[in-house]
């Protein structure tokens, strides 16, 4: 069955503008063109419903775009090519693992995030504009996760130490860009080695469910370890650089105190 954009929107329970927005963001492949008429197929409708379901589960558009891998350029011939069955099962399992490990069930509006974190809504808005907070759109509303709440509270504690807000935001933006690039490279490594090895181990006779389960389990085990590795490396680098600077300035008392503090404590990383 084929649909014009208005019919596709009705069938998917969204507006025409939403269909075009998803298509522009690469979440839905381009339609088949018949003259000046754009025609969508069942695969487009399936993809539209998949995107809506993932949004309702709390995933961001960027996360969904990474998984669905919709075509961004060119026509799709007879219609959108749906995910291969094995890929779809694996990706669904991977998203489920991501939801369990990092997204969680609770979500907050911006006013709720401000109230619970103690950070003024205007500052949170500035962080959102800078790309430091990325809301998830659920039923047309922007929602924030428990992780956003933890980050907001941590940011408030740093601000209360006396760091200027504008300089802290600039530093955070720089860090966020670097973290995004590192994350993309890490995901590429996971795709190239872990996912391929899991599928290779399953063999052609392996069940799709087993394939998806293996990838999900690999992600579940790796995620907390990668998180801890990155956090500990950052802490060690920060402490070492601070000690080097104090040593260079001849601040002996502060240096001894800092070294003693580091030796008597360790970073605690929890992953719920």
- Unreliable segments of 5+ consecutive residues: 70-86, 203-209
Determine the mean pLDDT.
76
CATH hierarchy, class of the largest domain: Mainly Alpha
Q: What class do helices, strands and sheet pairing give? A: mainly alpha
Descriptive account of the structure:
This protein has 272 residues and is mainly alpha-helical. The protein folds into two domains: 5-82, Multidrug-efflux Transporter Regulator, Chain: A, Domain 2 (Orthogonal Bundle); 107-263, Multidrug-efflux Transporter Regulator, Chain: A, Domain 2. The chain is built from eleven helices and five strands, in the order H-H-E-E-H-H-H-E-H-H-E-E-H-H-H-H. The chain has helices at residues 5-12, 16-24, 42-56, 61-68, 85-103, 110-117, 121-129, 146-160, 165-202, 208-248, 252-263, and strands spanning 32-34, 37-39, 107-108, 136-138, 141-145. A hairpin with a 2-residue loop joins strand 1 and strand 2 (37-39). Helix 5 (85-103) packs across helix 10 (208-248). It is elongated. The two termini are 44 Å apart.
What's the short version?
The chain is 67% helix and 6% strand. The protein has 272 residues and is mainly alpha-helical.
Question: Could you list some keywords that capture this structure?
Answer:
three-stranded antiparallel beta sheet, mainly alpha, Multidrug-efflux Transporter Regulator, Chain: A, Domain 2, 272 residues, 11 helices, 5 strands
């Amino acid at each position: 069955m084929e649909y014009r954009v208005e019919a596709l929107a009705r069938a998917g329970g969204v507006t025409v503008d939403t269909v075009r927005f998803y298509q522009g963001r690469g979440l839905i492949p381009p339609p088949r063109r018949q003259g000046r008429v754009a025609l969508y197929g069942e695969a487009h409708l399936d993809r539209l419903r998949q995107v809506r379901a993932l949004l309702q589960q709390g995933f961001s558009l960027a996360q969904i775009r990474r998984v669905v891998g919709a075509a961004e350029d060119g026509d799709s011939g007879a219609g959108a090519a749906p995910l291969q069955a094995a890929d779809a099962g694996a990706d669904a399992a991977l998203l489920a693992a991501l939801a369990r490990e990092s997204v969680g069930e609770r979500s907050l509006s911006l006013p709720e995030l401000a109230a619970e974190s103690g950070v003024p809504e205007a500052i949170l808005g500035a962080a959102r504009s800078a790309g430091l907070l990325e809301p998830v759109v659920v039923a047309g509303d922007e929602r924030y996760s428990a992780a956003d709440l933890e980050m907001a509270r941590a940011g408030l504690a740093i601000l209360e130490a006396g760091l200027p807000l504008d300089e802290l935001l600039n530093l955070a933006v720089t860090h966020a860009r670097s973290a995004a690039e590192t994350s993309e490279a890490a995901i590429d490594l996971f795709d190239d080695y872990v996912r391929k090895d899991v599928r290779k181990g399953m063999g052609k006779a392996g069940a799709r469910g087993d394939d998806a389960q293996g990838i999900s389990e690999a992600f579940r085990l790796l995620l907390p370890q990668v998180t801890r590795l990155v956090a500990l490396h950052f802490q060690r680098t920060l402490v070492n650089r601070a000690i080097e600077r104090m040593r260079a300035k001849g601040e002996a008392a502060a240096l001894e105190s800092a070294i003693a503090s580091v030796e008597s404590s360790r970073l605690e990383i929890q992953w719920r």
